[in-house]
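Handoff note, outgoing to incoming analyst
You'll be picking up this chain. Sequence as last confirmed:
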Amino acid sequence: MRRIQFWVCAIIMSGTVFLPAAARAQDNSARLQAIITRSRELQANLDKLPQSVRSTLVEPGRLSRLDTIASRVASRQSIAPVGLAQAEAASQSTLPADTNGLVVVNNRASDLAFSRFAVYSDTTSSTARCGEHVVVGYNRSASILETLINGTGGISFSGVSVSSNAGGSFRDLGAVPPGPNSTDFLFGEPSVTCSNPNNFYYAQMYSTIGPNNNAPTSIGVSTSNDGGNTWSDPVAAVSKSLSHTLDSPWSAVDPTSPKRIYVSYRDVDLSGTLCPNDLRTAIEVVVSNDGGQTFSQPIVAAQQCFSVNFEIVVTSRIAVSSRGKVFVAWEDAITLPLTLVDLAVTSFTPGHLPLAPVVVDQVVQGGAEVVHSLDVTDEFLMQGGFQNFRGIDLAVDRSGGPADGSVYVVWNDGRNLAVPDTINPFSGLYNFDDILFSRSSDGRTFSASAKLNTDNQPSIGRGFDHFQPAIAVDRTGKLAVCWKDTRDDKNGYQYERFCTESSDFGATWDEHRVTGTLSTPSRGQDRVINPDTIGNYDALTADFTKQARGFIGAFQWTSSGMNPDLKAQAFE
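Most recent structure output, in case you need it:
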């Protein structure tokens, strides 16, 4: 990996401060201008989308802040590379466990490296384990400044931490390399997978300049061949023109063919090709048979033309069975107010098209439905004004046991309690989420939904939110689900991490609260990201190689310093 080279911005010697020459900053002006131009091109494309679709995207907020930060840096011609030598040294040291046995994932020493005015966030994590090696990918807002100011190529919004002792300790490696060109942007939303203890894959949203100087949007895949310690520049798993926006990537490795990697994603398509004169949203899948070097043409799992019934597809998840069968989950959302959402699943085998999707259940979106016009739903917000992205996850049993091939789906759902909300005059309601679960032996017929959190919403009055669930199956066929949970705060605002496990394929569950995870959502302290976000998911995983039993997952924890950090928990 081309590690970010950190410069010392000031050397204090005999009471005198020596700064590097401003010439380097001047030489960097063309690169900064290219970054600004590219960010504005992408922003202009997103501005063409209906607000109901824009509200499901993360790029608009990140692009506008990137534009602002890059313009500010470019305007200061004498700005010098920021000195991070001490933070860099700290990032290479072992990050210890805390008093509750939770392991610190990201290095907090660099939180104030770029500013004494703002802190930085580490959120939206994906965890992969192969044997003793564990890799956590996550959105890391400090990476933007790290690569913008100290880098020579593109911009990264992503971070990575690694463990060689099954998650007993981690090293924060800083920014994931964005590529050598100033037009290479990594936008985050990671999905990390592995095929063995050496080979790990990091999929995320990506943008670069392609052949003939065109400007595609992409899903990028970075590869590590040394257990996550160094990473290649991203390879575009799929690229489309600026009339498309690609997001919500998820990835999975085929255990029957470890060099076969699947990546699912959503395509927000304004090209008018498949939906003439209309917006098209689709869930698509690409596959690599050579370890992430090249990828197939897209396979369409689902698509909607917007004007037919104002419906869009949202959020992709993908998993592969022990026999190489691929399962994909997503949500079909009608964007008119007060409507239900279909949670859908399809499947296919290599060389065949996906089957017709089946509906697992109709989902009631939690939080408050904020409507800025009378006919278009803009977004759902949780208490405190935080975005409530639709939370779903998918797992397949590949243990070789009696439930091998079973498909499990979890999601947060607000059906059990809706209360009047006078601050929200359009829908007038706030729906409190629970965690629901359904299983299928074949991916075609699903069980009735079951609530996993053991607390019950009150019959009247204020309830509690349970959101962003993640699910995994270990080598024994045991299930685990973890989520964020506000039940222990009487005001329903602070959240903790709860997990539950099942040894009988989801028939019964054993829930526990994860001590030491109490978090207070924080707004506005991180000036690099959207202040309305508390992350979009925290994935859970088991050992892909099936050498070890049990589970591990990194998750967002809001520290006493009030900026989001990451910790990890391993449990059986």
